[in-house]
Inverse folding.
């Protein structure tokens, strides 16, 4: 069942979303060659805890990290470790914060030092694809409108659109109905209503859309080894559009 949030719930979701956005902002100065993904995880969790929240992903279905750190060809769910980031890497950092039982969820992909033109374009167009999808949102729109906008923009730039992973509702659970795919047909899918909260999150690849899961049962990588980017905002559906809850 898709939930319409009460004003009180929306207030809590705004705070959770702000904590997530603030965490992304806090991490940016540290994202340089030489830092490990484990250090990023520790910095993020300490900041989230200092805001009176907890990391939504920690121990979620057994996930061992506080945030997801996905490097280069890792699409999502990369596990923080002693891996040292090098100049030329890109990293998708997916952050969730639980504030008084309500969640914020946002991923962003960052360049570590100077990166290749291929990676620059991948990041640029994936971020733009996110906002193409968001631009379709308003009371009475349909979930398929979001996916159609993302998919057509991504294919225009020859990017692979991951099928197996989708956006989702957000509330007292980090993942709620409805699913929000990054592909679809206009005027299809669940109808969006004012008061719904959803996460829109294009995951686009520089090559094929096909993905594989590693032996850790979490990390998802591109099947051809080409880089992937991930951009996500949690938004509130409003009468005339949307409100970003995870502003950075």
């Amino acid at each position: 069942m898709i939930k319409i949030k009460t004003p009180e719930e929306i207030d809590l979701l705004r705070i959770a979303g702000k904590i997530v956005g603030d965490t992304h902002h806090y991490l940016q100065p540290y994202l340089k060659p030489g830092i490990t993904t484990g250090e990023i995880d520790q910095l993020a969790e300490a900041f989230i805890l200092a805001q009176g929240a907890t990391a939504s992903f920690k121990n979620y279905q057994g996930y061992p990290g506080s945030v997801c750190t996905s490097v280069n060809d890792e699409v999502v769910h990369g596990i923080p470790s002693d891996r040292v980031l090098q100049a030329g890497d890109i990293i998708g950092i997916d952050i969730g914060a639980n504030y008084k039982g309500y969640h914020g969820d946002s991923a962003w992909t960052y360049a570590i030092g100077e990166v290749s033109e291929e990676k620059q374009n991948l990041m640029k167009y994936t971020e733009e694809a996110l906002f193409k999808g968001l631009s379709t949102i308003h009371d009475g729109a349909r979930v398929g409108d979001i996916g159609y906008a993302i998919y057509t923009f991504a294919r225009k730039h020859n990017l692979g659109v991951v099928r197996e992973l989708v956006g989702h509702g957000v509330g007292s659970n980090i993942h709620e109905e409805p699913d929000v795919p990054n592909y679809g047909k206009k005027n299809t899918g669940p109808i969006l209503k004012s008061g719904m909260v959803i996460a829109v999150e294009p995951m686009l690849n520089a090559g094929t859309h096909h993905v594989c899961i590693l032996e850790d049962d979490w990390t998802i990588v591109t099947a051809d080894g080409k880089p992937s980017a991930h951009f996500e905002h949690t938004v509130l559906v409003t009468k005339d559009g949307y409100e970003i809850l995870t502003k950075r």
In short: The first strand starts at residue 54 and ends at 55.
